[in-house]
Amino acid sequence: MGIENDIYSMNDWLLPGADHLGGLVVFISAIAILAVAGALIGFIVSSIRNGPFEAFYAVGRIAVESVPELLSISPRRVGAMTWLAFQEAIRKRALVAFALFMVVLLFSGWYITPNSESPVRLYLSFVLTFQNWLLLLMCILLSVFSLPADIQNKTIYTIYTKPVLHWEIFLGRLFGYIGVGSMMLVAMGVCSYVFLYRGLDHTHQIDPQSVTELTDTDDDTGETKVIGWEGETTFNVGHSHPFSLDADGDGLAARERQHTHQVTRNEDGTFTVSGPKEMLQARVRHLGKIRFLDRGGEPTNKGINVGNEWDYYGHIEGGTLSAAVFTFDMSDALLNEENQLPMEFNLRVFRTYKGDIVSGIRGSYYFKHPDLDIRSRSIPFTAKEEAETVLVSRSQENSDIDPTAPNLDLVENLTNADGKIELWIQCSERGQYYGVAQNSVFILKSNGSFFWNFVKCYISMWFQVVMVVTFGLVFSTFLNGPVAALASLIALGYGFFAESVRELANGEWYGGGPVESSIRLFNQKNVMVDLDEGVYVNIVKFIDARFFDGLRVFVNMLPDYNQLDTHSFVVDGYNIPGVVMIQQLLIVGAFFVCLVTTGYFFLKTREIAG
Amino acid sequence: MATTETMDSAAETPSASNEIVIETRNLTKVYRDFWGRQKVRALKALDLEVRRGEIFGLLGPNGSGKSTTMKLLLGLLFPTSGQALVFGEDPSKVSIKERIGYLPEESYLYRFLSARETLEFYGRLFDMPASVRRERIDKLIEMVGLKWAERRQLKEYSKGMTRRIGLAQALINDPELIFLDEPTTGLDPLGIREMKDLILRLRDEGKTVLVTSHQLADLQDVADRIAILHQGELKEMGRVDALLKVRDETQIRARGLSDAAKEEIRQVIQRHEAELIDIENPTTTLEELFLSIVRDSEARPGRRARVDRDDSAD
Ligand SMILES: Nc1ncnc2c1ncn2[C@@H]1O[C@H](COP(=O)(O)OP(=O)(O)OP(=O)(O)O)[C@@H](O)[C@H]1O
Ligand SMILES: [Mg+2]
């Protein structure tokens, strides 16, 4: 999950809609698919061994027994198994890997100074990525080898002859390793946080001699008055900050290397510089809904497809009526003390011919009432390939010349009864394009707490730990250690490019699904030619649509670790939205339920001494 | 497979009741490889009944299927065909595990735990209050003589010590039915004696014990009944004393006979009229019996050995 991903509201995410199945349907279908596949495979395997009649009985018995067994899970026994897994991990190997992490962290901590251009980014992206991988690898190793080792050493025989349910064996292990993983996660988190603070902490001095006093002479009285000070701090850890203070001797130094300092002038004429400020941010994004207008100004599904990008960006063509329209929920609360609306623009630029690369591509934006035909005058801007903060004044000029209302208020005049306002963005340069997505433009709501954002990022990491451990443990119920490790690694690797696979499954398929393409193949019809209308075409289309639904469910049954990775939010200093955390929780919960059940059946049907 | 003689003889064992605790019917196990191809026929159509309160010995050379039988009875293996019942139920049922104890042929315990932790762990898998658990653990550690090493990790234990802690583990829940797979291997002579005494004590407490061994002497002393397995086939089963009787021979023991008297006895016996001081069937040792069965079985595979033996007639 990156800052670029679309963030859906809970309802859209969970419930079926026009263009998606919704999490709930996917979950229920996944359960159904697993149940049918499990029963079928169990039946086939069992039939080969004992014949179909026995197999039918065996599958039925196992399925029927699972429920009362689930209900009679004893926390005490799960606790005992958890304790065992914990002891095993601690006494055997996990600490070694953890020590390795500490060493690497120490070394990297050495080089983390505010020396670099963007120290926070650098440090956070290194530490979070490195930790994430190390932790997940450790979790794989931890979870994958224990059950096979138990079977190989036959220690499991002794367990099996005690009144322990298969659920308890599986869950106990699972909780044990998740526990170990969590402990390491917490330790890593605390260490990185401390290192981050200590590594970036620095201050500057100010030589009073180098500071210029700013004075102003009163025209009437001829008195000179000090109105402020200007100067530059000393050069420390690779940078210095210019600053200017107000008449009281207070001020913030200029932002440099992702931070500033508070500067105060003391009574005796010396200056005090605080530690770094605003270094670690968690800006809260207030996102809107996007729609596009095509070059003729007509509504369109997506912008023009420029071809080399994923579907994520829509493109608006310069010098036409093409526009990206954002609809925001608007209220007074979003304005800052100076009555400005803080916004951020992250537009992509696409050139069809090479212009002046440095100067960017010109465009304009304006605000419009969603229902009425009133709008503010266009404000020109230049988009470069970087984030840009814009402070939009609350009072905007009216684009119509209307003496009764020369100015329009963002909240009073341009926001409708539902509290919505529209922001229109257009590109002015003919033949050039803007790439715009839902998250490209937003209102900066406030500054959240970096600490909590950091914690949220670690909670996401914890979700990944849960997934990896659960997958590893399920694999280890039927594979031996090394093979299970390999399978887990593949699942993990897959999980990191799952997004593109899903895009593929969701995307446009020219020539239709398997049935339609077979018909085309048979009739030798080009994929772009429409099939003749008729009942049978509808049937074909219906079958194909179900095929795609199935494909989507299937693709969703495989883990997508991107959805659980929020470190880019922290790195870029954006707040992780709560709804993302809840969705992650539900994803992990759904996987957890399916995987634990799968693991149970594998363990239960496995001949332990065979 | 002509005789089905031995079952009723168990009634003679004083502490054995008629309640059947373990039953196998036509129990067969074929080990297969990954592709389902047959590797070993480890057990062939075993029929067995063990009653409450008896000590039942499974005897056989290495690889004869003793451990396989035990694992089938514990639900660690699934039968290829036939059925195994423990307390009248499928051995994989969790409820019966509350009532059994198992000492594996090697101690399959976690080597990173100490003796006390091991017992604590297995104890927690049973439904017993913490106070009872602690009490039992103390008692068992005392019983197996490991008090002095209870806090050391099992990886530091000697073989015999591991065996002892394995036994303690098997008894943690005060089971009704105890499976001991070669309980004496790795023990010193004193340990073997203690193990035998323990088995007898367990019987006195009314528990049922299924014990395997190839240490013939072990079973001879303690088992009420034994079954002899060879290459997965049941070769012999019955009461130990009955099995060891040689029926076509007679042994006379007397004290203080003169040579003349002996001669006279010989004559008397020839005439079938003398008063005998002591006349009985001589016993062979289990070892001899065992070896003869194995030889017999190898000569005529697939047959039950020495079917003429019929202890119920004694
Ligand atoms: N897991 C297994 N896979 C394949 N074959 C096995 C397996 N376990 C046992 N066997 C085979 O089954 C046969 C019986 O083995 P089992 O362990 O029951 O013998 P045993 O009577 O206990 O021998 P021992 O006195 O050596 O313990 C042997 O031929 C053995 O090779
Ligand atoms: Mg054995």
UniProtKB/TrEMBL annotation, chain A:
Quick one: signal sequence residues?
none
Annotated protein name in UniProt: ABC-2 family transporter protein
The record's section on PANTHER family has: ABC TRANSPORTER PERMEASE (PTHR43471), SLL1107 PROTEIN (PTHR43471:SF10)
* Transmembrane stretches, start-end: 20-45, 94-113, 133-153, 174-196, 450-471, 478-497, 581-603
UniProt KW Membrane keyword:
yes
Which organism is this protein's natural source? Blastopirellula marina DSM 3645
Which keywords does this Swiss-Prot/TrEMBL entry list? Answer: Membrane, Transmembrane, Transmembrane helix
Instruction: Tell me yes or no: is Signal among this UniProt entry's keywords.
Output: no
TrEMBL record, chain B:
A Gene Ontology molecular function term of the record: ATP hydrolysis activity
Keywords of the record: ATP-binding, Nucleotide-binding, Transport
Give the SUPFAM superfamilies listed for this entry: P-loop containing nucleoside triphosphate hydrolases
Q: Which SMART domains match?
A: AAA (SM00382)
Source domain of life is Bacteria
Per UniProt, residues of the ABC transporter domain are: 22-256
**Could you confirm whether the keyword Ribosomal protein appears in this record?**
no
Entries under Pfam families matching the protein: ABC_tran
In the UniProt record, does the keyword Cytoplasm occur?
no
What name goes with this protein? Putative ABC transporter ATP-binding protein
Name the source organism: Blastopirellula marina DSM 3645
